Amino acid sequence: MAVTLQDVAARAGVSAITVSRALNHTSYVGAETRARILAAVAELNYVPNAVASSLRSSKTQLLAFLTDITNPFWATVARGIEDGAMEAGYGVILCNTDEAEVKEARYVDLLLRRRIDGFIVVPTRASGPILQNLKRHHVPFVLVDRAVPGVAADCVRGDSRSGAEQLTAHLLATGARRIGLITGPRTVSTAEERVAGYQDALRAAGQPGDESLILYGQYTEPWGYQATQELMARPRPPDTLFAANNFIAIGVLEALHTFGLRVPEDVAVVCFDDMTHLTTARFLTTVIQPAQEMGRLALRLLLARLAQPDRAPEEIILPVALVVRRSCGCPFTAGRPGGNQ
Amino acid sequence: MAVTLQDVAARAGVSAITVSRALNHTSYVGAETRARILAAVAELNYVPNAVASSLRSSKTQLLAFLTDITNPFWATVARGIEDGAMEAGYGVILCNTDEAEVKEARYVDLLLRRRIDGFIVVPTRASGPILQNLKRHHVPFVLVDRAVPGVAADCVRGDSRSGAEQLTAHLLATGARRIGLITGPRTVSTAEERVAGYQDALRAAGQPGDESLILYGQYTEPWGYQATQELMARPRPPDTLFAANNFIAIGVLEALHTFGLRVPEDVAVVCFDDMTHLTTARFLTTVIQPAQEMGRLALRLLLARLAQPDRAPEEIILPVALVVRRSCGCPFTAGRPGGNQ
DNA sequence: CTATGATATGACAACGTTACCATGTTAGCG
DNA sequence: CGCTAACATGGTAACGTTGTCATATCATAG
Q1: Fewer CB atoms near the end CB (10 Å): N or C, chain B?
Q2: Tens digit of each residue's pLDDT (9 = 90 or more) over A69-95
């Protein structure tokens, strides 16, 4: 049915290996021969069979990115990965894990069978066993955004702690008294790091800090909504809300809206992660992480490891940027309604 | 290096084929033998090699979804596809085409080499040649959201025309006089269908309709922004803006904001496509398309075609739903600030 | 008691490519 | 002029699985 190397070879009057070499530039091939081969390829409409090639060479030239691509932040990271991968001759399989270990494990299994060359993973703390599994099978992987305790691996992440500290310090400097922090699950390192940064800033400002203002939950909109309701219903509600990621921020804004509270007049709001191309984003004071860059670097680490499997694990911590816009209600933004960015 | 069927077979004291059959439930295997095989698999940590399997059986059990996954709408469709695929034993490769034919073509090429079993594509009109290429290679595909003239294929799409008509009729019924329509590129069928629906409604209302109020462009935020600026700067600006998709809507809102115009007090805004979990969404009057359902159905069509390659092309047109919220400024929404949904 | 079909296992070859080894030709160099 | 190295091409086998054909046992039906 399908056209094979043999067919092309026959048509060009050479052997199959020569055709392979011509197409893969893997050895010398005479100029004239090459021309004849290319002609035959075009005439027969030959499409190389990567499956056979992979079997023989035990390289699939495929990488996988496991994350919740529903979140535009990760979609952007994916973009960074993809661009670089394409350039290096790799394809990328994007897998929607929904941050659920069950789906994650299932995908890893599926991809191991497919003999994927390498993984880029946005892990949770529960990913440990899954990553160990990858190690056992000697499949290289790189972590993005989050560290996993007990797993030494290449990793690219933003400086959550410092970012949260900057954000909190800014709030304190411009008059915030009680800052509610709505963060993600304890199983995710960034959730705790952002808490740590928040506490760093309070400590530096000589404030005691009220433990009850810190709510752990999920990195989701419903959690932002629910936590806001809870915080604002208290006898002494916070005057400022710090959402630990973009989805939480959306829930926060929504909840405040239903309460009839204005931002920033009644309550100031800030968040972590940006949501480029979302109206709310141009309004929110936030800490921006270089998403695309993150992807690009993760890919670079993975390629490096593919080339040299036994190199020492490398951890890249990317600087983050505080972007002050209107939602925190501070006076510094007067005159630039759209915020910068 | 890696454990193979042979190794497992040796350990279990049977032949390789028996192991294959035991694992794939593809023929009779004695209960005791199966147990021994499964034990051997576990002890040796055997992971089947799908590459070899694919080569032999000429089925990869892989599907691809080509679209701009950066758009949450498509990410949701992807979810629908994935869920069903997983269930049917297929993996899905998500590919970010950015709606650019160059990337689309490159991916198709890549995936044809990999002998993907089938494609689900969100095409543009320029996709014609690419789809013809798929046909030439007898690789099944299904279109989503958009028809491509001259290409007979399975297709799932929303009823854009009717949706746009409903939306426009609602606006006219509640007092809109001049409705600016900011739509996508002429190369995308939905962009024109939404225009057609808009015109249907005007005609039905006995209104002449002002051609200059219809602006074709891109399905992107910058275009929404730019088009809004242009429309609102005119001597007789529209009193209502109809954004033909979610990204455009975001640009529209942003532009109005920089103009200092309030929604809906100064200008009413409606759009097509929903943005679940976005604050702006709960505020916008919109036409909702069942994204996840769309994906699920597209997958079902593809599976049907895989099972029976020569069946007649099927086109599924999904009903869409008008959801009235606050942004259109009509009185019907009084008392439900959050809108429904 | 034999025919029939369900049960259970195996041998062999093939899928389409590339790794490895081999061979020959030509050009350059001492 | 013989020797090395770059250039050019081919043969054979192997990657790990499964399609196809073959064989054997056993129970049940006629």
Answers
A1: N
A2: 888 889 999 999 999 999 999 999 999
Would you call A277 and B60 a contact, using CB atoms and an 8 Å cutoff?
Answer: no
Helix and strand totals (H; E) in chain B:
12, 12
Which residues in chain A are closer than 8 Å to B62, comparing Cβ atoms? Answer: 114
> Do B160-290+322-328 and B59-158+291-319 fall under one CATH topology?
yes
Between CA A243 and CA A240 the distance in angstroms is: 10
Q: Show residues of chain B in contact with A93, CB under 8 Å.
A: 91, 93-94
Res. B181: pLDDT tops 80: yes
List of long-range contacts for A305-314, beta carbons under 8 Å, 24+ apart: A305/A118, A305/A140, A305/A142, A305/A154, A306/A117, A306/A118, A306/A140, A309/A138, A309/A140, A313/A152, A313/A153, A313/A154, A313/A155, A314/A154, A314/A155
pTM over 0.85: yes
Interface of A with B in 106-135 (CB under 8 A): 106, 109-115
Residues forming beta bridges with residue B323, ordered by sequence position:
B286
User: Tell me, what's the pLDDT at B339?
Assistant: 36
Angle (nearest 5°) at CA B102 between B99 and B105:
95
Question: Which residues from chain B sit within 8 angstroms of residue A70, using beta carbons?
Answer: 72, 75-76, 79
Is A26 an interface residue toward B (CB < 8 Å)?
no
Preferred mutation among B245, B250, B277 to probe A, highest tally of A CBs within 10 A: B277
Beta strands in A30-173 (DSSP E): 62-67, 91-96, 118-121, 141-144, 154-158
Q: For residue A24, say whether its CB is under 7 Å from any atom of strand C.
A: yes
Q: What is the pLDDT of residues A270-287, one digit of tens each?
A: 999 866 555 555 678 999
Domain ranges, ordered by start, for chain B: 5-48, 59-158+291-319, 160-290+322-328
Architecture of domain B160-290+322-328: 3-Layer(aba) Sandwich (3.40)
CATH architecture of A59-158+291-319: 3-Layer(aba) Sandwich (3.40)
Are A50 and B337 a contacting pair at CB < 8 A? no
